[in-house]
Amino acid sequence: MLTAHRDAEAAKRFLRKALKAVHNQEPRVINVDKNAAYPKAIDEVKEQEELSQGLKLRQNKYLNNRIEQDHRFIKWLVKPGREFKSFNTARRTIRGYEIMHMLRKWQIENVGKGAVRERRKFIAEIFGVAA
Prior knowledge:
Blueprint: H1 2-20, E1 29-32, H2 37-47, E2 56-59, H3 65-78, H4 87-104, H5 116-127
C-alpha cells in the first residue's frame, strides 16, 4: 500500500512539473499506461483545481509507445556512458543529448530548418559557450 501511495505522489509531481513547462498548455486528454497510480494522481490534481474537471484520462498499455520510441535515441547514447563519475556529470551529459536531439528534430522555438546561426546562438545560450 505504501508503494501505491509513493507512486501516486510521484505521478502528481511529474504531472505538475509537466504542466508548469513554458511550452505546454493545459491538456484536454492525457494518455498514460495502465499504472494504477495515474487515476488517483489525476483526480487529486483536479480536486486542487490545477487541471480542469473536463480532462479525459486514457489508460492504454500501448499509447505511450511513440514517446518511448522518441527516447530510444537518447537511451542508445546513454548506455555506453553508464559509468558517470557523478550525478551532475550524468545530468549535464544527458541534458546535452536531449537538447541536440530536439534541435535535430526542429522542436526548438525560433530555430527552424537550416537556421545555422540560430542553432549556434541557442547552443551558446544553453551550454554557456561562445558562439
